[in-house]
Amino acid sequence: MRQYRDKQGRILFVTDGISRGNVWFTGYRRPNGSIKRLAVAALPIRDTREEAQRDLDKYAREKRLEVITDGT
Predict the structure, then answer these.
(1) Domain count of the chain?
(2) pLDDT value at position 72?
(3) In this structure, are residues 37 and 53 in contact, taking their beta carbons and an 8 Å threshold?
(4) Looking at the domain assignment, is residue 10 inside a domain?
(5) N or C: which end of the chain has fewer CB within 10 A?
(6) What proportion of the chain, given as a percentage, has pLDDT over 90?
């Protein structure tokens, strides 16, 4: 799955967080190692990883974010 670096230097990625696959969202890792959801309207919580990845890809294109990995 693709990951992106935002303007603040955070690596954005799709994750299920602690829900173990029940919901998917875009997040980033805090300095302490925990995952924080990037809560913006363009990146809602989704039922599938694929939906969340499509949202992140679109958001990244619009914001011109740097692609970090492209392991699709």
Answers:
(1) 1
(2) 53
(3) no
(4) yes
(5) C
(6) 85
Distance CA 63, CA 7 (A): 9
The pTM (predicted TM-score) of the whole model is 0.89
Output the 3-class SS for 9-61.
CCEEEEECCCCCCCCEEEEEECCCCCEEECCCCCCCCECCHHHHHHHHHHHHH
Q: For the purposes of burial, counting CB atoms within 10 Å of the CB of 10, is it exposed (0-12), middle (13-18) or buried (19 or more)? A: middle
Domain membership of residue 44 as a residue range: 2-64
Q: What is the pLDDT of residues 19-39, one digit of tens each?
A: 666 899 999 999 999 999 999
Residue 53's CB is within 10 A of a number of other CB atoms, namely: 18
